From TrEMBL:
It is a multi-pass membrane protein. This is Solute carrier family 12 member 5b. Keywords: Cell membrane, Chloride, Glycoprotein, Ion transport, Membrane, Phosphoprotein, Potassium, Potassium transport, Symport, Transmembrane, Transmembrane helix, Transport. The keyword Ion transport applies. The keyword Transmembrane helix applies. One of its GO terms (cellular component) is plasma membrane. Residues 77-91, 936-952 have a biased composition (Basic and acidic residues). Its main location: membrane. Belongs to the SLC12A transporter family. K/Cl co-transporter subfamily. Residues 687-802, 819-885, 1006-1074 form the SLC12A transporter C-terminal domain. One of its GO terms (molecular function) is potassium:chloride symporter activity. It comes from the Eukaryota.
Amino acid sequence: MLHPGVFTFVDWRLCVPGDGIPKESCPFINSAATDVEKSQQYDSKSMALFEEEMDTSPMVSSLLSTLANYSNLPTGSKEHEEAENNEEGARPSKKPVKAPQLGTLMGVYLPCIQNIFGVILFLRMTWMVGIGGVFGSFIIVFMCCSTTMLTAISMSAIATNGVVPAGGSYYMISRSLGPEFGGAVGICFYLGTTFAGAMYILGCIEILLIYIIPQAAIFKIEGLEGPEAEIALLNNMRVYGTIVLSFMALVVFVGVKYVNKLALVFLACVILSILAVYAGIIKTAIEPPVFPVCILGNRTLLSKSYDVCAKIVELDNETVTTKLWRSFCDSESLNATCDEYFNNNDVTEIQGIPGVTSGILAENLFGNYLEKGMFLEKRGLASNVDPDSPVSNTNRYVLADITSFFTLLVGIYFPSVTGIMAGSNRSGDLRDAQKSIPIGTIAAITTTSTVVSHPRIMTFSFRFGEGVNGNLVIGTLAWPSPWVIVFGSFFSTCGAGLQSLTGAPRLLQAIARDGIIPFLRVFGHGKANGEPTWALLLTASICEIGIIIASLDSVAPILSMFFLMCYMFVNLACALQTLLRTPNWRPRFKFYHWALSFLGMSLCLSLMFICSWYYAIVAMGIATCIYKYIEFCGAEKEWGDGIRGISLSAARFALMRLEEGPPHTKNWRPQILVLVSVDAEQNVEQPRLLSLTSQLKAGRGLTIVGTSVQGTFLNNYTETQKADQSLRKLMETEKVKGFSQVVISSNLRDGTSHLVQSGGLGGLKHNTVMVSWPHNWKQPEFHQQFRNFIEVVRETTIASLALLVPKNISSYPSNGERFTEGYIDVWWIVHDGGMLMLLPFLLRQHKVWRKCKMRIFTVAQMDDNSIQMKKDLLIFLYHLRIDAAVEVVEMVGHLSGLIEKLEIDSCFLFLQIQSITDSSRGSIRRKNKPTLQPQHSKEEGGSPADKPDDKAQLIYSKKTTTPSSHTPAATWTEKKDAGKGRTQSASTPEAGRDFLNMKPNQIDVRRMHTAMRLNEVITKKSKEAKLVLLNMPGPPKNRVGDENYMEFLEVLTEGLNRVLLVRGGGREVITIYS
């Protein structure tokens, strides 16, 4: 999906669909031209100005020619038929596949008609009207038809927004909503189509066993009543359903071309049945048929319980009792003891089809919902019932065999309108899908809605024709014979079942071949001709679940859920594309609006819960699980979908909101810029930096991993891409959620500065920088490295960014390690806004540090009350909701005593200044033997020559101009012993002359003393700590003291294994308030 201001470059030389490039990103839609053909296309000298670009950019003439010759090759039935034909006889060359020739009528309109006029219309429509009433049935039909019409409008807009390859509805939804939604909805649509096959098969068996050949029942129903008869019927459905399912699956497996050839026959049966019903309606209006129904009182009698609708008849001037009498009385005699209700009520015979002018519509205007086992009573007839008398002979009446209510009728009826996607599913077989799908689908919905909304002149409340001699209820209206409807509906359900078993495996195969759901990839394979064998096997297995349920009224709500969910997301896709106004959204179908799509989506969601709230929850749960599975484990696909557009719009909106001001302290979290270096192979040199970053991400903040490549953009772009891939791979390995950024600069110092300055976007910028300690900074070849490090410290200070400097990063734990015990020690020397308190809390949220305990140390000065400090700190931690042990360390009197011990003479001062000069040039050892020895105090035991040169150094400033009246104290960085000195050799005479112009800087002496004393205390207290967090001193204002600054930090952290130096960003990051 392209947006204004975004430039996209595609190498058309490599643009071959199937090579990892989606066909929608390629201008040559149907091109398979060879390099020779392409060179011939560009073999023109009339465009010499552009001849250098002909290898990468197509000529307009060739592009238009390719587009004009485009044909939407089917991947459906036609392709499989030709593959099968090719298998029948070996042919030297493959026959060119013909372009699809199906138009609107045969390709969309009639298939939709066939699927909509299905099993529910023939088997349940009249029962629904009898139970729900004309008004209630009209509401149900209106809601369902409105839902499908709105969905068809949205689908038409999507279908006309570009070429729709074979794949139909799944292709449209997945490319509009992305792989996650597309996969979830595709699976739901697949399950709905599969259970639809089970529903059609059950309807086929119901027609066969009840209306055509009742004698074929394996489990005999004759003589059984109530639950026993119901169980026997369900068992018959299971046995015969499994047989029919196996036969249909075999037909589909052998060859889909037979299914396509039979489709026209089945379609003709549907049309003939509808015409027969309408012919019967016309005949009924002129001459109502004689179709009696026997009523006792107001209770409808079973047709098998009587031969004549009368208690007694006159035969040869003699009163004779009938079969009905014998059903309710204990003998045939007129003085026999009979059922009380039978004695108190008369027998009435009414017309089952009274005609349009009989007033039956007004009588049955409102619903008559029944509980299971209740009598089916005729409205308007009197009934004499003794409430105290027991009910008997219930097997002689027509009883409600299912508890009915409005929502049940909605769930049962909705599958009868779910054939609206039959045309779009054949998009690969259509001559012009963009024209045929909207016209054919909307015309089919209009036709079927008109038919089913016709005023119901038959309002029977029994499902299986118990009151009309066991005939198919709607068949009683057909002309010229009820058998037209019986056989028409039988073949219609068979055809619909075959179509479902043909379409569902191909839908699953399309999902599997997209690769968005890894565990379904096996179902993308099939026979040599492309037949989805494994998908067909899975489809038949799932369909068998519906067969085992065996009840048409129980299976119908299940598939209603899946189809409604599919329709809901079609409406959502259209609404999102319309509201986002993406440049590529230009449908040819103009009669759509986002409000209509939202209305359709709302209707779908409402109908899901109206039909069955628990089925709706289960269906949504399945879709959610699939969505999450694809999100975490599925293949990443970029289809230019609407969800990506939502993400872009939401990101833009959020970034604009972040610009309104800095975040509140309660919302502060570390947004870390991790500065790493790469080697010559563009591999990260400090991978443990990303491990530490991952362990700090309990704050869920932004992470940017950045590095700099030395060179120019034109010459080193390849190295940049390689470095970026290396960063991304390492981030994925360390499970760091964030972004990578690589910049090219003439030198690494400027590149790092660019990252610090320009990282992030708008208000979503880093507030913390993490950089590793330059461990080899004393070696001459690494001098520039530590100078770059100090510049980063200065830049973060100026930019008010927090700074994290892990020292000895290689010793930090990886994400796979676990500390079973230990401490995280915080040395809180100065207040840094709370960073030192927040970081251990975030670390302890990670499994690596979870079992470590937190200790906080702070330093008391001469005038501080250490006892009160500890109490205040405990209260402060309590309000911060942080559990930690507290200790106050007193450092009083050390400075004056140390200065007194370190009084030295001028000779010793000269030697130490020379040592500083050499140290700043690389800490090179002296080769000359010392000519002067300093005077050591009694406390300075040991031979000075035994001490290594890099363990002692004196800190002065060469530019100090303030004179001193006495010789200042010097400071060594000896290991834990302030009083031990060592011998320094004299150097050249120039160094002696430099001494005349140099004055010692007492501030540096004090700094070194502080570093040494703090290190002594920290080492004593935190030697065994798993991690030590410490305030990082600020850098020197001028660059002359950079070496001294590094030496301060070395002394401060000497002897500690893992140290994290922390500098605050100049703002509070933690608060005690809620």
